[in-house]
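Table 4 source record.
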Amino acid sequence: MIISITGVAGTGKTSVARELAKMLNARVIHLSRLTEKVSCGYDKVLRAYVVDTEKLRRVVAGEVKRSCENHVIVEGLLSHHVDSDVIILLRLSPEEIEKRLKKRRYPRVKIKENLEAEILDQIYAECLERARNKKIRIIQINTTGKTVGQIAKRIFNILRCKNYRSAQKVCGVEVLGDYVDWLEKYEKYIIEWEGR
């Protein structure tokens, strides 16, 4: 099984991938280690590589083929763009994202971009589009207030069809796990953040 773990910066993708890999005896492919290889430029303002997603898909497919493990976890912000059997979308409250990214010394513009993406469901919308076209399941997990171990165990149980809420159908896609909608609660947060 190929599992993509995605979400905005600070949601816990790397830590959760490592923990889940132990439970599944899986190999982890960290997209952050491949971004320079598959980039088509560098954004100096955001301090980030601009990634060619088609090239990323091909490189990851090659890495997966070379794996001996039954399960492969692809983790990173763009992992929902690679071919996988299931997409795990990690969500986190905007306040917590801001705290974590400030601690990492992210530039203000990059923090704002990640907050907006989380509040406006940008990654969720991209996951839905990808899943609808490829018939992939999505597992959405609100990681707010949970430990890495709790998150990984919840994902493991959902993958094993234990202890999960019944699936929702969103745009014709089966979405398991948590319902997350920050917009109503955090609409003012973006406006206030603009004024800081």
